[in-house]
Specification:
heterotrimer; A alpha+beta (about 375); B mainly alpha (about 300); C mainly alpha (about 270); A: OB fold (Dihydrolipoamide Acetyltransferase, E2P); 2 domains; 20 strands; B: mainly alpha; MetI-like fold; transport (chain C); membrane (chain C); transmembrane (chain C)
Amino acid sequence: MAQTVFAPWADPNEKPLIEFRNVTKRFGDFTAIDDLSLDIYAREFFALLGPSGCGKTTMMRMLAGFEAPTEGSILLSGHDIAPVPPNKRAVNMMFQSYALFPHLSVWENIAFGLKRESKDKAAIAARVDEMLKLTRLEKFARRKPHQISGGQRQRVALARSLAKAPKLLLLDEPLGALDKKLRQDTQFELMDIQEKTGTTFVIVTHDQEEAMTVASRVAVMDEGKLIQVATPAQIYEQPGSIYVADFIGEVTILEGHGEKVGDAYEFAFAEGQPRLHAKTSRDLGAAGRMYLAIRPEKVSISADKPEDTPNVLKGRILDIAYLGNISTYHVELSNGQIIKAQEANTRRLSRRSFTWEDEVWLSWTDTAAVVLER
Amino acid sequence: MRRFILIALPYLWLLLFFLIPFVIVFKISLSDLALAIPPYTPTLSWPITWEALKEFFAALDFENFTFLTTDDLYWKAYLSSLQIAVISTIITLLVGYPIAYGMAQARDEWRPTLMMLVILPFWTSFLIRVYSWMGILSQEGFLNQFLMWTGVISEPLQILNTPVAVYIGIVYTYLPFMILPIYSALEKLDGSLLEAAEDLGCSRFKAFWLVTFPLSRAGMVAGSFLVFIPALGEFVIPSLLGGSETLMIGKVLYEEFFNNRDWPVASAVAVILLLILILPIILFERNEQKQREADQ
Amino acid sequence: MRRFSWFNATSLTLGFAFLYIPMIILVVYSFNASKLVTVWAGFSTKWYGELLSNDQMLDAAWVTLQVAVISSTIATVLGTMAAYVLVRAGRFRGRTLFGGMIYAPLVMPDVILGLSLFLLMKPMFSQMGVHSIVLAHATFAMCYVSVVVSSRLVSFDRSLEEAALDLGCTPFEMFRLVTLPIIAPAVISGWLLAFTLSLDDLVIASFTTGPGATTLPMKIWSAVRLGVSPEINALSTILISIVTVGVITASLITKRAAIRQMAEERAAERA
């Protein structure tokens, strides 16, 4: 069975559903969004990821119609949406606080939007029941929002915003109010529902794990700008900048001098330390100041010096963070530089090979590290 | 458009029934008493010509204000109103604070009931509550009966129709206005602040003085203004409890209007009272504004 | 941690005794057989009988009730609009003046309000009466309503209104279907407050009244100026009982609703 990979952004013939064209948004002197352009395609599950105050919520509120761009335009299916008020947009939003109407039952909450556009009671009832079934809320239809649990409330909010079958669904930190375990289950449920309904989802989150789990593409934002837009795997494996590498997951960043040798760079980062090798498809010039980002799980740790690996460093274990399934070792080199290495804890604790102050060897392949300009 | 109507309707109503009346009061305070309908001159009548306007403005003067300074009834009334308002505000604060504090310290299940007990008098007729003291404070009233029964005094005291009765009346009727803002400030206070203060070596009293008291200041300020400002222009309390020797400006204004039918002088009295009140009212609104911003 | 000491107990006891003893004495002596209010001469309900056959009193009560119902209804509509403008309309020209006009009447002495409203309305109407009292009461009561309603609006989750717009409501539908039902308790208590203020007011009504429009406080006033009278005690007792029953009922209803809501929330989380 040959399944084509879902990647409309790679197809030049595909028309985007949403286009941000040089959008700037200012609140007084504060620039929330700074000359930003972005395309989002139909059926995508698109995540806007960034720290609080980076402008991701403003992006979403502009899509919903609660804010208007100061400059530039936003297009939905090729039409500028600036003159369309929020109540006329084929866009629905799931609010961070859920914004469930406390005086209406679950059923009435879900029917609320449908009643605005149609008088056909039977059709409304059928659609509400369909939504209740989709979100497994049939039993709670008659309850008021305060009579159900947080997780159920989250599903009501989702059902309500999906009921009108919008072209685009906006989710503002949809799982922020749930505890960790429930959040993980709900992430898969969200993906499932997105796939079933075929709706385009744009999710705003500050939780990088959540963005990586649910999204087809992630946009990392900072200070009103897009830093990188790519699939979760690309964001993690080939971060475009130190900011992205550091924001997502754990990483060790070395600063030093690089020199191009064939399709790789030779990297010198300190006196008395061996040179490192990193293959890359990027061209950062023949030589110059650059950075090397290494994910700890790509670093092997051993008692004896490994043979046949391009990158080998010697160090001493400074700290061990035991996380259950894995342990992170902070290894200090002779020049004081600390490199993080992760090992899966496949053996029982008592038989673990390394402890504090042990002299160890670190090694990684020449494709493990990423060379970055900044 | 809808937004315009929403703003305009209450706005115009307040302009017409609150702001413009003050302009009229000011204008009439510059007019003279006359035996006519309406009982003052000058008046403007249609058609308003430039000449008529000039004549109208030429006839306005500050005579009534000069009159207020010559007759010592008025400035004595202003001074004694100020004195009564200040002293009764301080007494209300001293009486109200411990009650508000006790309420804030009470157990959670008690607090709604205590709150209700403070609010209940607030909903009860003001007039009736002042009236209730007439039977208590009179010569043969309950207070004198009680004091004579305990043997503290042998002759009944004259309390009704003295300033003391006015103080009691003001403290009594305005006490809920003092308790509520202080209580709401104290109730918001995080209990762990006191524990932190004690942990850092404060005695219980010191912790109160250094933590609770400063943090309840906004409530005390709000409560004090809520007592002071209306007390200054109070009319019912001095009329019922104060007798003829207690001068308060609200009573003077009322009598000037109803007994002497001198609208211009009554207006002048009101203008001066308003000028005295403007500063406390602005300070009060500033305090409220700060509170609202802090709450958001 | 809250600490309850003998000091707190004493201040609460003395404080509430001070607040309630005068009213209790008033109520007790309304059942006194003697005309002398301070001498107990046995239990009797004759003052209530006299009160109920006093046509002037009953007329005044009827006028007062009409004024209170109409003026508090106008005040509630205007006050709710004003509150919405204060909290939601953002910045507009003259907003500071608007805020000032809302808050100033709350502390303005009655004599000034009364005099200024009289001088405004005297040339406006050929005769003053119930209608002029209604306008005067609606004006100062709307400020109280707007304070009560705006404090509810401030704590209102704005995203509820945004959600309504997002789901296709027009701004008016949003107000009718979402905002109003949620702030309804505040609007109702605003109405009750306006009603009570109108019921109690003596000074402003005295200034703005006209022939044939004597309110209950005005009637009480002319009676008590002559001294203490048992008939007024009886009337006071009736008014105090109405208020007491009203306040206790209202607080019981809110308390029960709060307890039920808490219980249901806890049950929902456990499930």
